Amino acid sequence: MKKQLTIILMVGSLILVGLNAHAHPKGPKALIDALNLTAEQQQEFERLHAESKPNKKFIHEQRKALHEKRNSLLENYSEEKAQELAEEIAQQAKNRALQRFSHMHQVMLILDDEQKATFLQLMDKKKKGKHSHRDHH
């Protein structure tokens, strides 16, 4: 049981790191260029991006607190505390994923059909690049 909880905590920590990735391949400017946004679309995209910024700081603080809890747990291990932390990590990862999906959906709403296809291709390439190391194990 201890081994399983330790694995859950390690996986949770990796998820936290992975979820920190941005929703676009090389930042907002590169995405704006890649999608060839109109001036109106660019203004809306920048508004959406600006709205997401305050949440990023909050997420960073949450992640920092979880790392501190993890370190404390590893020094004073208890299965109950490990279970609580694993559940907290999972819940926060779920919340961040839902926020990211919502943000990406809002971006999709401002795109035309061709831009949507490009956006989805860019997201697929980003995902493949992020997980390409898995093919080598």
From TrEMBL:
The keyword Hydrolase does not apply. It comes from the Bacteria. Residues 1-23 form the signal peptide. Coiled coil: none annotated. InterPro entries: LTXXQ (IPR012899). GO terms for cellular component: periplasmic space. Keywords: Signal. This is Zinc resistance-associated protein. It comes from Bermanella marisrubri.
